[in-house]
C-alpha cells in the first residue's frame, strides 16, 4: 500500500465544451481534491476555480457551446493537486482581461473579470500557455498547506 | 438546480437548490426578473440548499441587486448561505454588496 501512496496519481477525462458538462467536470475535480485530502472549503474552491476556467474556455476560447472539447487532467503528488485543462479554441491571453473593481459601488459593478480573478485568488499557481499543436493549456496548482490569506 | 418561491406581504422568498453555474444561472435570472418586472423589489434568496455558485451566478445576483436598489425601492438579501460559499463570496469582494442573514425568517422580518 505504501508504494501506491507514494506514486503520483493521475487521471484524464475529456468533456464536450458545453455548460451542461460543468457539473460533471466539477465532480471529477472535486473527487481529486478530496483524494488529495483537502478540507471542505478548499475542495469547494478548487471546484470553483476549475468551473470558472471551463466557463471561460467555452465562452471565450470556443466562442460558445458545442464547438469542441475540454480535456481535464489531474495529478496528485506530495499534498499538491495539479489540474491541467486543454482546449483547441482561440488562443487566450489573460492580459486582456481587466481586473474587477471589487471596491466599486454596486451600480458600477459589472461582474466581468471576476472568474479569472477568483482563479488567481484560489490557486497557488496559474499558467496559461498556447501551443500550436496542443492548443490552450491551462495549468493550475493547489497545495494543501497553503493558507489563502 | 431547482427553484421554489414563496410570497409574503412585504417580500418574496426564492429557494434555490443545487448548482448555480453558467448552465443554470439564466433560469435563476428569469425568476428574479419576473419579480422585479412585477414591481417586487424586496427579495430574499434562501441559499441553504445551494451546493455551488460560480461567477455566472454572482453576476445574476449583482444585476438583480442593482435593479432592486435603484431609487431605494428595495433590496436583495441572502439567507442561510453555506460556509464554503460564504468564503467564496468574501473572495469575490461580495460581502459588502449584500445583507446576509443566518435564517430566512430573520431576513423576511427585516422588510
Explained architecture:
The complex is a heterodimer of chains A (about 150) and B (about 110). Chain A is of the alpha+beta class. The longest helix of chain A is centred in the middle third of the chain and has 22 residues. In chain A, a hairpin with a 3-residue loop joins strand 4 and strand 5. Helix content of chain A is about 35%, strand content about 30%. Chain A is built from four helices and five strands. The radius of gyration of chain A is 16 Å and the shape is globular. A five-stranded antiparallel beta sheet of chain A has the order 1-2-3-5-4, covered by helices on one side. The model of chain A has no long low-confidence stretch (mean pLDDT about 90). With about 110 residues, chain B is of the alpha/beta class. Chain B is built from four helices and five strands. In chain B, strands 1-2-3-4-5 form a five-stranded mixed beta sheet. In chain B, strand 1 and strand 2 form a beta hairpin. The N and C termini of chain B lie far apart (about 25 Å). In chain B, about 50% of the residues are buried. Chains A and B meet through helix 2, helix 3 and helix 4 of A and helix 2 and helix 3 of B.
Helices and strands of chain B, in N-to-C order? EEHEHEHEH
- Let me know the number of strands of chain B: 5
Q: What low-confidence regions of chain B span 5 or more consecutive residues with pLDDT below 50?
A: none
Percent range for β-strand residues of chain B: 25-35%
Helix count from the secondary structure assignment of chain A:
4
Mean pLDDT rating of chain A:
89
Q: State the strand order across the main sheet of chain B.
A: 1-2-3-4-5
Structural class determined from secondary elements of chain B: alpha/beta
> What does the oligomeric state look like here?
heterodimer
What low-confidence regions of chain A span 5 or more consecutive residues with pLDDT below 50? none
Question: What is the CA-CA span between the terminal residues of chain A?
Answer: 35 Å
